[in-house]
Amino acid sequence: MTTAEQTPAQAKEPEVPEKSRWIAVWAVALGTFLLVTAEQLPIGLLTSVGSALSVSEGTAGLMVTVPSIVAAFAAPLVPMLVGAMDRRILLIGLMTLMTVSNLATALAPNFSVLVASRVLVGIAIGGFWAVASGLAVRLVAPADVPRATAVIFGGVGAANVFGVPLGTLLGDFTGWRLAFSSLSALALITLIALLVVLPGLTASQVIRPKLLMEQFRNPGVRVGIIATVLIVFGHFAAYTFVSPVLQKLSGIDERYVGPLLFGFGVAGMIGNFVAGAALSRQVYRSVLYTAVALVIAMPLFLLLGQTAIGGGILLAVWGLAYGGVSVGLQTWMIKSAPQAVEAASSLWVAVFNLSIGLGALVGGVIVDTLTLQSVLWLGGACALLAALAIWTARKNPALR
């Protein structure tokens, strides 16, 4: 691919980072933990927010939809707009925005102000994730990049396991405003950590629209984007309705759904780090096996998930497989576009977030118009198509 927009300084091989920069990797992981918690926390607080601000639960759902869609557009736009700005300054600025926007949510006098604050959250999520997702290559030695990427994306799993449930619990006991105030305080702590440990990160490239479009001429990037759309879309079309799936198909009492979803998150964290270790040896096979595992896990609910034990086991398998998706596909993008990591990552984050929203939307339509079982078939079919797309890259030397 072309690197015509690189400066001579950017064309040089980067220096091997010091081991001390691993603490910066963990600080960025704290940031991803915060981002996902901020994006998904309203799911558990819709009823209380809607009641307090006199809107329906459906309208309150905009608290989730709005930042997800805004993040999809912010991912490529923020790096383009800031040009050659030091990425350390950019990340600190976005975390400052996250701190202020969550405080604004907590203090919102009406729903319009609250939605406006969630727009700012979406900008912070998209911009931070776009830069952070490819940051491992800047912070650690090449051999450690998959492991560092797994650490950064470990924040995603940790948010699902700890951040969202604990935030919801706090909101239930003390009120939703205190829950968002606490999120703002956590953002401030993350901001201070980034200020202390994050080294200067001169922009490796000035991202222009032309450079973003050039990524689609890269076969590896194209396959990575297609696989991301299919897997994430299919997963959220099905997983959004995992609670009724467990109750109606597996016969599991509502009381046990929460603990099982906690188990899903734990399995996802394990899958994240297992995939990180495997990716350091073989990228193509690791990502392919992840897709194949999803092909098996979701449709199998219809055959083996008819009992509580079967449903619980398959949910854990599903979580283990999906845990490797983010780190696997991000590593795929890094390997496919080593000279344009930030540009490729920006596109990847954009389609990832957009696929979350579209998957949940289409899944809802299918559940309302067809059957609950249909979303599991859709999830499995999308994973199968993704596996076939990944298989076409089997001869790509960059992914061996």
TrEMBL record:
A single GO cellular-component term on record: plasma membrane
InterPro entries per record: MFS, MFS_dom, MFS_Efflux_Transporters, MFS_trans_sf
Record has Lipid metabolism as a keyword: no
Record-annotated Major facilitator superfamily (MFS) profile domain positions: 24-398
Membrane topology: Multi-pass membrane protein
Keyword Magnesium assigned: no
Protein name listed in UniProt: MFS transporter
Membrane spanning stretches: 21-38, 58-82, 89-108, 120-141, 148-166, 178-201, 221-241, 261-280, 287-309, 315-334, 346-366, 372-393
PROSITE patterns named among the record's database cross-references: MFS
This protein's UniProt keywords: Cell membrane, Membrane, Transmembrane, Transmembrane helix
Top-level taxon in the UniProt lineage: Bacteria
Compartmental location: Cell membrane
GO molecular-function terms, A-Z: transmembrane transporter activity
SUPFAM superfamilies, sorted: MFS general substrate transporter
